[in-house]
Amino acid sequence: MLKKIRIANDLIGYSMGRSSEERLLKFFSEGRFKCERVLQSKEGREVKLVEIEGKRYILKRERARGALDSLLGSKALMTYRNLLKLRGRGFKRVFDIHFVVEKKRGVSIEETYILMEYIEGHPPTTVEEYERVMEAIRELHSLGCYHGDCKPKNFIIREGEVYLIDSKFKRGWSLSLGKCKDVLRLQRRTKENLPIKKYFKGYRFSPAYYLAILLIYKKEIINGAEFLKEVL
């Protein structure tokens, strides 16, 4: 169970309650961390590689949905809970989350922060590594979750193992469509000719698969049907 900790007047932290996590929360609230580099920066979202006491972490900040997040729960907290459920079911291909912080203004959540494990490795580059990625996706799907952003840089190879990053590990009503979009996004964003049918051939019998084709390949559909050979 996650422990809720007020770490400042406007900051609420969530962690498993370990002393090491509470220490990291304290360092975060006091601004005692060093930014090594910004990995991503766009409107409403920033991802940094940071250092705390000589150790590297990923710190992600996202704009929240205000009162809606206060009512339904923030996406950051949902990610944390989904990850813990996956770990509880034996899925080891994921990063650790050390804490989630919600910054509030009144009753509304203004921003969220996640401090995550930094996994050092490289994105897949060979067909063999992509096959391991597809095995990892299939395992994730079998546990009732989908990635939501299947592009090569969101998979890290370390010592031959595949780790999934930058995912909320979504579940629920959108699962069927989400799983199919995972498969098609990976195919679309990869230069290699991946053996998609080998791992996901059963998906083609789902109406959600063809809806996903329309959503992921809309530009290609306008330019002709040659691309269908890759996905059907």
Automatic annotation (TrEMBL):
Give the matching InterPro entries: Kinase-like_dom_sf, LipoPS_heptP_kinase
A Pfam family of the record is: WaaY
The superkingdom of the source organism is Bacteria
Name assigned to this protein: Lipopolysaccharide kinase (Kdo/WaaP) family protein
Question: Origin organism of this chain?
Answer: Propionigenium maris DSM 9537
